[in-house]
Amino acid sequence: MARFFQFFCLILLILIFATSSANQKTHPSVGVIRWDAWNLFDGQYDPISFYSHRCLSPEKFHYRLPFFATVLSPTNTSYNEDMQSVMDQEILYAKHAGIDYWAFDTYCAYGPNCTTNTTFCAEYLQIAPHYCPRNPAYGLHQYLSSQYNSLINFTLLLLGSSPCDLNFQASYLELMVLPQFQTVFGGRPLLYLFQFTEVEAKLCGGGWSGSRDVFNRFRQMAINRGLKNPYMVLMDFEVPTVQAHANLLGFDAISMYALPGGTTEGSPFMDLVHVAQQWWQSAKDIKAKLVPIVPTGWDARPRYENPVPWLIEGPEHYFQPTGEELQRFFQTAINFTCQYNETVEAQTILVYAWNENSENGACLIPTLGNGTYYVDTLSKILPLYC
To answer: Closest Cα partner for 29 from 338, 329, 246?
Structure first.
């Protein structure tokens, strides 16, 4: 009887230890970039959505249209993402895939003919000529009003110098206090910033030092609201450049929005995977703090054949990944995040992209061509743990 009791206690201790160990496993979060340019405004396509519509209207690109689109003819399509039912379905798809949060591209809103009352928004038109959405935050608004918004978190991917404006900063804080706002590294609100170069630094704070002061004051505003110090991530193409600028701004980590490339004939998806791995390794080699970028593709041929006015993109592209290739890529990214947890201290990765359908040939959002293939593929492996 005594031996049985000892054996029972031993088994109980093993079970307790196993349960405790499982509960202590780290779950690196998976974020995905949203580019919301699929809406109507006053019954017409929003200026940016107009170009998205034009890019994907040719029949050979219809397979890339998001699931809520309708094909009207071989040369014409129709869609409007600015609907609660559409956003509700997107949230359910993202939850099914195992995605933890969306990073909403956050731009200025403009009036008719690109009019604006703010210097920062006017300056953004120097980066992206004619990039004048009337309602760029429709996706975020529909997300916030959804009955399902507790299923997936969100953050902001800020662009240009507008984050230096006090009014914009106040609007960010109103979102950052919400329970769905993504946090990392012990509860710190996560924010990304892209397209912030020396030009933006001069407008923001008279240079890099002054801009650092602007963002430090924003950090203090967040702390005064009862939040922890925001975890701020700067994005740019070249690792040495973005790390140097992040140091000047006092940002916490670096990342990238996308990794353009491939060949005119098309390159294997694994070539893109290798480019991403090299980006991660380059950041680690210079001892940068990193949020690994995980691009699901690059194929801007619709924009090459039907150009948009705010940038020039070529026909170079990568082939769409198979389900197995996509799964291996995500597993590789999570393994890197876990193995080099001092480099990836925030324990999160950022995926490009959810709905950049005219630029990325393999977006995660279900499409007319791929259906739910990619969200189903990810649902089989996510969440992943260290």
So the answer is: 338
- For the chain, percent helix, then strand, then coil, each to nearest 5? 45, 15, 40
Distance CA 154, CA 158 (A): 13
Strand, helix or coil for residue 267: strand
Phi, psi of 212 (to 5 degrees): -60, -40
Measuring CA to CA, which residue among 302, 289, 293 is closest to residue 343?
Answer: 289
**Chain mean pLDDT for the chain:** 94
* Helix H or strand E encompassing 276: helix 269-285
> Is the CB of residue 318 less than 8 Å from the CB of residue 324?
no
Tell whether the torsion through CA atoms of 341, 344, 348 and 350 is positive or negative: negative
pLDDT of residue 266 exceeding 80, the answer is: yes
137 vs 133: CA distance, rounded Å: 9
Going by C-alpha positions, the residue among 63, 195, 56, 62 that lies closest to residue 131 is 195
Backbone phi, then psi, for 324, in 5-degree steps?
-65, -40
- Cα–Cα distance, 255 to 344 (Å, whole number): 10
Give the integer Cα–Cα distance in Å for 154 and 383.
Answer: 17
Give bridge partners of residue 70 from the DSSP assignment: 78
Grade residue 24 by pLDDT with cuts at 50, 70 and 90. Answer: low
- Write out 17-60 in H/E/C secondary structure: HHHHHHHCCCCCEEEEEECCCCCEECCEECHHHHHHHHHHCCHH
CA–CA distance, 232 with 33 (Å, rounded to integer): 16
For 267, how many CA atoms within 13 A lie in the half-sphere containing its CB? 19
Euclidean distance between CA atoms 230 and 98, whole angstroms = 25
Residues 6+ apart with CB under 8 A from 230: 176, 188, 189, 190, 191, 218, 219, 222
Share of the chain above pLDDT 70, in %: 94
pTM value? 0.94
Q: Say which DSSP state 185 is in.
A: T
Instruction: Please report the pLDDT score of residue 29 as a whole number.
Output: 98
> With 0-12 CB in 10 A as exposed, 13-18 as middle and 19+ as buried, what is 323?
middle
How many C-beta atoms surround the C-beta of residue 378 within 10 A? 25
